[in-house]
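new request in #modeling-help
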Amino acid sequence: MDPRKNKKICQKPKEKDCQKTRACGRREFLKGAARAAALSGAAMLAGCGGGMLGSKEELSLRWKEYFKKHYRLMTQQEKDETIRRLEQLAKINNNVNIQMSSAAPIDGVLFGYAFNVTRCEGYMECVAACVKENNLDRKSNMQYIRIFEMEHGQMSPEVGNAKYYHQVPVEDHFYMGVQCYHCQNAPCVKACPTKATWQEPDGIVVVDYDWCIGCRYCIAACPYYGRRFNWNDPVVPKEEMTKKQHYLGNRMRGRGQMEKCTFCVQRSRAGRLPACVEACPTGARVFGNLLDPDSEIRFVLKNKKVFRWKEDLGTDPKFWYFID
Amino acid sequence: METIQAKIIPHVFLIIKEVIAFVKDVITWSLSGGLVYQIYLCILAALMVLGVYAYFVQIKVGLAATNMSDIVSWGFYIANFTFLVGVAAAAVMIILPSYIFKDKDLHKVVIIGEVVAIGALVMCLMFVFVDLGAPWNAWHMIPIIGLFNWPTSLLTWDVLVLNGYLVLNLMVPAYILYCHYYHRKPNEKLYLPFVFISIFWAFGIHLVTAFLYQGLPARPFWNNPLMGPRFLASAFAAGPALIIIVLVIIQSTTSFRIEDQVFNKIRRISVVAAIINLIMLFSEVFKEFYLPTHHSLPAVYLYFGLKGQTALVPWIWTAIIMNLIGTLTMAFNPGKNNPRVLVPACVLLFLGIWIEKGIGLIVPGLVPSPLGEVVNYAPSWVEVSITLGVLALGIFVVSMLLKPALMIEQRYEAGR
C-alpha cells in the first residue's frame, strides 16, 4: 500500500464531515468526527495490514479487529465475533469462504510427537503437506519442518545437510526431521513481552498472531529454530488455501507477525492427525495423546529407545526421536 | 480555606508564567546560531527525512526491506540499540563523582553527560521501535490496556528501565537548569534523591540489557555470565570517550570554557574501564579458543569465519586494533591531554567498542543458527538509512538541549 494514498483517504471523509457540521447540529458533528477518526484510523490500519481499502463495512470490521483483546482474555462470545469478522474479511478481501474454529483443548489430552529416525527416507512429503495445510507463505517459501540428511556416525541435525536436491534415500545416509518441539518448559513463552505466545493445556505452544508485536525475542530464545517470522505479507493462492482454519492455527497471518508449528491444532483438536503425520509415506511420524496409556506415542516411549535433542537445556520437549 | 486559595493561585500562575518564559527562551536559544550551526541542523534534518522515507518503505513492504532473516533475526537496529544503551548508562561516570563526591571540575560538565544520556536513550527507544515487525501493535505492551509480561520477560524489564532512566535524566537537569535560569540555587533535598536513584538505575539499564542476551541458553555466545560486567566496562570506556569528544567540540565552537583537569579526569575514568574491558575480552577469547567446544562456533565465525563465510572477520579485527590503540594511547597519554592526540584516541576507542559491542555481539549470537547453518548478514540500504536517521535524531536532540543548557549555565556562573 502506498502510504500517501492512505493519507488522501484519511482526509477525504474528514472534509466531508466538516462541511456537514455547518448544516447540522452538534450531535451530528460529534458523530461525524468520531466516524472520521474511525475511518482514518482504520485506513491507517489497512495501510499497515495491506490490501486495498474497501467498503465502509470492511473498514468497520478492520477497526473492530484492531481493538480486539488478547485471545485468552476473550469470552466465548468475543471469540465467536472475531471469528465471524475474520471470515467476513476473507470473503471481502480474497473472495474465499473459510470456516474458522476456536475449538478449545480437550480435557485429559496432552499431545506428544515421536520421529522414527530409521524409517524416514527424506521424501519431504511432510514438508509439502505442512505448507499446504497451514497456509504457509509461498513468497518467502516458509517451512515449519526441515529434514536434515545425515551421514552415519552423527546424531545432531547441526552437522547434517538440509539443502539436498537429489534422489532420496541416499545410501549410507539417514534423515532427521526438525520442527517446533512444543517444549513443556518453553523459552519462547518466557521471552514474549506481550504474552502473545503461550502453551495451551493440551501442550501445544501457540501464537496469538494479532497480539504479536514482532519483536522477535522468541526467535532468539528458541534453541531449535522452531519459529518463523513474516518478513513480508504472506501470499497463498486462493485455490491452494486450506479453508478449514483455527484461530490459533492455520488462519492467514499478516506481515510482521510470528508463527510456528501448532501440531495442526485445527486438525488435532478435531481428532485428526497433523498433516505431516498423515502425509508421511514411510510411517516415520507418530503423534498422539501422552495421557492415554493405549496411544501409539505411549507405546513408542515405552518400547523404543528414545532420545530428545539438546536435552541439556532443560526445555523438556514433547518431541522424541527413536530408532527401530 | 479561601485565604489559602488566594495565596496559592497567584503563586501557581507565577510558576506557569516562569515556565513558559523558560521554555520559550530554551527553544529560541536552541535554534539560534551562526550559519555553520544552521547548516549543521539542516544536514541533521536531511538525514532524519531520509530515515523517515526509509521507514515508510519498511512499513510498506515489511521487515523484508531489511536483510534480516529467520536466522539473523536481529540486525543493525538491535546492534546499535545495544551499544547506545551503554552510552546512555555511561553518563553515570560523570554524575557519580560530581554529585556524590562533589567534584567541582566534573560538576561543571555534568549537564553535558546528562544531555548525551538523553540523546542516547532517545536513539535506543527509536531503534527498538523501528525494529518491531508490527509497530501498530506496540500498545499491546502497555500495562492495563495491553498485556505486559512482567516480570517474566526480560524485554519488559528493558522497556521499564530505559523509559525510567529517560524520565530521571530529563527531570533532574530540567529542574537544575530551570533554577539556574532564574538565578536561584536549586534545592539539593529535592533533586539529590533522584540523582541517587539514577545512579543505580544506570547500572540497571545496562545489566538488564545484558541479561536480555545473557539469559538465553539457546545462544551460547550470549549465554555468558561475563556479559553484564563486560557491558558495564565497555560502556564506561566508550561513554566517557564520547563525552570527551563532545567537550572538545563545545570548547572549540562555543565560548563555554572547560578546565584541563576535566579532560584528564574523564580520560582516567575511560582508561580504567577500557583496560578492564580488554581483560574481560581476553578472558572470553581464552575460554572460546583454548579448548574449543561446539559452543565456540559463533566465536570462530566472528574471528575467523566459518564454512567460508567471513563477513564479520575484517570488522572484528579492525575493532580490536582500534580498541587496543585507543586504550593504549589514552593510558600512556603521550599528548598530555592535547586534544589532537586525545580526540583521535577517543574516536578509535569509541568506534572499536561500537563495532565489537554492536554487530560483533548481535550477529554471532544468531550465527550459526541453532540448526548449524551459517549465513552472512549486512544491512540493507533501508536499515542503513533508518539507522542514519535515528542517529541524526539523537545528535539533534543533544544539540537542541545542550545549546540552551550551556547558555543558562554560563549566565548563571557570570551572574553569581
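bot summary: Residues 1-34, 46-51 of chain A have pLDDT under 50 and may be disordered.
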